[in-house]
Amino acid sequence: MGNTFGMALRVTTFGESHGGGLGAIVDGVPPNLRVDVADLQRALDRRRPGATDLGTRRDEPDRVEVLSGLSDGRTLGTPIALLVRNADGRSGDYEPIRHLYRPSHADFTTQARYGTPRQPGGGRLSARETVARVAAGEVARAVLASFAPIEIVAWVQSLHDLDAMVDAATVTAVDVDASPVRCPDTAVSAAMAERIRRVRAEGDTVGGVIRCVARGVPAGLGDPVFDKLEADLGRALLSIPAAKAFASGAGFALTRMLGSEANDPFVPGPGGTIVTATNRSGGIQGGISNGMPVDVTVAFKPVATLAKVQQTVDDTGRAAEIRGRGRHDPCVLPRAVPIVEAMVALVLADHLLRWRGQVGAPPSIPGR
């Protein structure tokens, strides 16, 4: 329960932060699709801990092993099993705080839910679990590529009180990865990196917002009631550790507009296509994609583990003080960018396969 995601494309992740390893089983992938293991590894390298001085000092190689479902770089139509072994866990770091509830962590809630002993580093609830999602997301990109040239690009839009000026229509993955913070606004990226370093030196943490755009998404994906495309995107992105808010298109800014300002008028597009003059809907109307870029944002809270002393209680309910132990990111945003992209890819691939299963062919934008 709670470890499987998707309907037509089903992903089950497994493993804990300080266990032997983590992985994913991806089921429902059509046969004869090209999946390059090198692409899986490149995706994991973008998320890998220890890669820069802005993140955790836990140094994991994150080498992916494909156990099943692929032969000579082609999918077999059978479950694809992916494994990444843990190599640099230090469970002993958590022993001094084993009986203390870490503020804003899931120690108390998971104990209330399962009644089991707490696991080092948060166990299953650690952001380390997302290594499996990124690997599965790269498989989802292969599914998308078999339908249409869909491009998914995410970037750090804001960090604390620093906001980037980014042209969402033209930003590329190359632009994003040119920055250690994964913000394509060069000047703001430098300020963000300095803010992360300063906050870390002060023993604190910082959060922000990631924006993601998927270009080339066909019209017709999603269902009009419970499985709206933006509802599934919100569910997927809010399942990422530290994610606390989601918006589609202009989001909460729409509440400050009149209807005449908020609407996206339809206009003729190139080659007889139908497009909208604006994209405040974020490419989704009535829960169904309209052929414009799918545009979503997700807000991440500051990392809960601090090097500062905080008030808490122990597992007997007595008041106590705690100082964070272990190796943690001062800011999740740079490494969360590929995680956001992976979850968006998984949702879109799942909806494309569901559409094909019901209608028999991938949807097309009118006039294309």
How does the SSE layout of this entry go?
Elements: E1 4-5, E2 10-15, E3 21-27, H1 37-47, E4 64-68, E5 70-71, E6 74-75, E7 80-85, H2 107-114, H3 130-147, E8 151-159, E9 162-163, H4 173-177, H5 186-201, E10 208-215, H6 229-238, E11 243-248, H7 259-262, E12 266-268, E13 274-276, E14 284-285, E15 288-289, E16 294-300, E17 309-313, E18 319-323, H8 333-359
Antiparallel strand pairs: 1-2, 2-3, 3-7, 4-7, 5-6, 8-9, 8-10, 10-16, 11-16, 12-13, 14-15, 17-18
Helix pairs in contact: 1-3, 1-8, 3-8, 6-8
Structural class: alpha+beta
Specify the oligomeric state. single chain
CATH superfamily: Chorismate synthase AroC
Largest sheet geometry? 5 strands, antiparallel
Task: Extract low-pLDDT stretches.
Answer: none
Question: Shape from CA axes?
Answer: globular
* Tally of helical segments: 8
Describe the structure.
With 368 residues, the protein is an alpha+beta fold. It has one domain: 4-Layer Sandwich (Chorismate synthase, AroC fold), CATH 3.60.150. It is built from eight helices and 18 strands. It has a five-stranded antiparallel sheet with strand order 1-2-3-7-4, covered by helices on one side. Strands 9-8-10-16-11 form a five-stranded antiparallel sheet. Strands 5-6 form a two-stranded antiparallel sheet. Helix 1 packs across helix 3, helix 1 crosses helix 8 and helix 6 runs antiparallel to helix 8 (333-359). It is globular. It starts with a strand and ends in a 9-residue tail after the last helix. The model has no long low-confidence stretch (mean pLDDT 91).
